[in-house]
Design goal:
The chain is α+β, with helices and mostly antiparallel strands. The protein has helices spanning 76-91, 109-121; strands spanning 12-20, 23-31, 36-41, 48-55, 63-70, 98-103. A 6-stranded mixed beta sheet has the order 1-2-3-6-4-5. Strand 1 (12-20) and strand 2 form a beta hairpin. It is globular. The two termini are 20 Å apart.
Length: 125
């Protein structure tokens, strides 16, 4: 995994690549004041863009809302990936929402698990 993080940019971010199966996936994680942005691509494009947030009601257990705002809306594995990340963000104590962009050729569970693991390992929350 090569790490090209730079803190000279006004937004805290990490930029790195991981090898999952036979694919090189480039990942960028940005921490803005009001949200997190994660981009994972093997195509060099934004791909499907999703928004995930924690909703707290009167019950003690939080609920999570994940929606596709651009791209493939019929891929439950992509939504599951966003949900796993927002749950981890929430369990780490942050209440910021997540915007997740996945530009992938392969939407298999192995690729998505690898992305979730790499993002959590390099998290900015």
């Amino acid at each position: 995994m090569d790490d090209a993080s730079s803190y000279s940019f006004p937004v805290r971010h990490k930029n790195f690549s991981v090898q999952i199966k036979e694919s090189k996936v480039d990942i960028v994680i940005c921490s803005y004041d009001d949200q997190f942005l994660v981009i994972a691509t093997e195509l060099g494009t934004m791909g499907t863009i999703m928004h995930a947030r924690k909703e707290e009601g009167m019950l003690n257990t939080p609920t999570f809302n994940v929606s596709a705002i651009f791209g493939k809306r019929d891929e439950p594995m992509l939504l599951a990936c966003a949900r796993q990340l927002i749950e981890h963000i929430s369990n780490s104590g942050s209440s910021k929402p997540l915007t997740l962009s996945l530009g992938l050729k392969d939407h298999s569970m192995e690729i998505l698990k690898g992305i979730v693991s790499a993002v959590i390992e390099n998290r900015l929350w």
